[in-house]
Amino acid sequence: MTMFMFATGIENSYPMVGGKRVDEMAKCRHYDHWQADFDAVEDLGIGYLRYGPPIHTTWLGDGKYDWSFTDTVFNDLLRRDITPIVDLCHFGLPDWLGNFQNPDFPVLFARYAGDFAARFPWVQLYTPVNEMFICALFSAKYGWWNEALSSDLGFVTALKHIVRGNVLAMQAILDARPDAIFIQSESSEYYHADNPAAIGPAEVLNSLRFLSLDLNFGRRTGSEMYQYLLDNGMSRDEYDWFMNVRLKQHCIMGNDYYLTNEHRVAADGSSRASGEVFGYDGITWQYFQRYRLPTMHTETNLADYGDGQASVDWLWKQWASVLKVRNDGIPMVGFTWYSLTDQVDWDTALREDNGRVNPLGLYDLDRKIRPVGAAYKQLIKDWALVLPTQSVCMVVPLVKPSEYNDPWAQRRREDAAAVRRAKHANLTQIETNS
Questions:
Q1: 40, 368 in Cβ contact below 8 A?
Q2: What pLDDT is stored for residue 393 in this prediction?
Q3: pLDDT at 2 > cutoff 90
Q4: CA–CA dist 350, 25 (Å, integer)
Q5: How many C-beta neighbours within 10 Å does residue 119 have?
Q6: Do residues 253 and 291 make contact, with C-beta atoms less than 8 angstroms apart?
Q7: Are 27 and 40 in contact (CB under 8 A)?
Q8: Are 77 and 119 in contact (CB under 8 A)?
Q9: Mutual orientation of helices 30-44 and 371-383 as an angle, nearest 10°?
Q10: Residue 177: burial class (beta carbons within 10 Å; 0-12, 13-18, 19+)
Q11: Residue 21 exposed, middle or buried by CB count within 10 Å (0-12, 13-18, 19+)
Q12: Torsion angle of the four alpha carbons 157, 163, 169, 170, in this order, in degrees rounded to the nearest 10
C-alpha cells in the first residue's frame, strides 16, 4: 500500500513534425544527464516518476529492440526504489511503423507493451499511450504532427487505432503483471461558448473531448458522437468491441490541466484560449461524474520568465484545487508537476525548431533548482504524511520496486492472476453458450 503519490515527469515527447523527429529527451539533454535528473527526483523527496523509453530508438521492429539505454536507466530506477509510471507511447511512433493511420499499430504495440512488461516485471504503473485525445487531435485533425492530416476521417481513424492500441497494451501488460495499474493521463478540456450562436459548436466540442476515455473505459457515447464516429470510419463492430472490453477496474483517471485547457468557441466553431475559468476543480468534477474512478492530477506547469513567483503561485493554486476536489468527495490519489526540467519549443507545440527554452520545470536545463522546485519540495515535506488516499480503506495497492519479490507481493500477483483466469474462463463460456 502507498500514501498519496507526489510525482513529476521527464518529458519524452517524440512526434514527427514536418518529416523531422522531435525528441524532447534529446533537446532537454536527458540522455547526457539522466543520473543528475534521477538525483534531482530523490532530492525533491518524490517517489513517483512519469517516464518511458524513447520508442523510436528502442522499438526497431516487430519483436526487435535495442534495450541498451532502457536497461541502464530502469535498472537505476530500481536501485533507487523510484516508482516509474511508464509512458510507452508519447505522441509518436518509430519510423518503421509510420503513423497512427496504420491499422497494424494496435496489435504490434500490444506486443511491444507485453515484451516491456516481461523484461521489467517489477514495473506496476503504466500509461500505455499518453494523452490519446491530444495525440489524435494534433496528428490528424489539426495537421501538426505525425500524419499531418486535417479531417474528421483522419482524426477518428487515429483515435480508434490509438485507443485500441492502449486497450490491447493493457491486456498484454496484465498478462505479464496481473496487478498492474493504469494511470490514464488525458488532457481535461472545456469549451466555453463566446455567444449564443456558439452554443451548438461548443456543445459538440465538449462531447468530442470525452471520446478517447469513453472508448477506453467502455462508456457509451451520446447519439451525436456515435453518429460522428460511424460517419467517419468507425464500424459498428469496432465500436461494440470497445464497449465490451472491461478494463476500467484496473485504472486511475489521470487529469492533465494547464492554463491553455479552456477555450472560447466562436459561432463558426473556431476557438482560442480562454485562460482559467472553471479551473482544475470544476473540470475534474465533470470527468469524475462521467467515469467514477480514482483520480490523479497527472500534469500541470506554468512558464515563468520572471523571478519564478508566477510558477510558485500556480503550484499553490493547483494544489489548492486538488485539496478542494478531495475534500468534496473525489478520491484523489496523486499530484504531478510536469516536468522535472525545463522543456524546449513547447511554446509552439513542438512545431518550430527554435531551440527556445520554456521555463516550465522544477529545475532548469543546467540542473539548478527553480523556485517552484523548492516550493514543491516543501509542499511534499509538509503534506506527505497528512494525505493518505482518503482513508485506510481506499489506498492504492502499490508494490514498490524494492518490494517486488516480497512474499506478500508475490501472493498478491498470484491472486490477481487467478482472478484474471477466472474472468477469462467465464467470458469464454459465455461466448461458447451464445
A1: no
A2: 67
A3: no
A4: 13
A5: 14
A6: yes
A7: no
A8: no
A9: 40
A10: buried
A11: middle
A12: -160
Q: How many residues does the chain have?
A: 434
Q: How far apart are CA 169 and CA 113, in angstroms?
A: 6
Q: Is the pLDDT of residue 128 over 70?
A: yes
CA atoms of 49 and 44, how far apart (whole Å)? 12
For 237, phi and psi rounded to 5 degrees? -65, -40
| Nearest C-alpha neighbor of 337 from the set 24, 7, 34, 5 | 7
What is the torsion angle, in degrees rounded to the nearest 10, for the CA atoms of residue 64, residue 70, residue 72 and residue 73? Answer: -170
Which residue matches cell numbers 487531435?
137
CA nearest to 34, candidates 77, 85, 84? 77
Q: Given phi > 0 = left and psi -120 to 50 = alpha, else beta, which region is 252?
A: beta
> Cβ(8)–Cβ(362) under 8 Å?
yes
What is the DSSP pairing of strand 125-129 with strand 59-61?
A: unpaired
pLDDT in tens, 130-143: 999 999 999 999 99
Contact 30, 37 (CB under 8 A): yes
Rounded to whole angstroms, what are the CA distances from 309 to 44, 302, 375, 379?
19, 10, 10, 15
| Residue type (1 letter), 427 | L
Is the entire prediction scored with pTM above 0.85? yes
Residue 366, C-alpha cell as written in the block: 543546467
Name the grid cell of 410.
Answer: 508475490
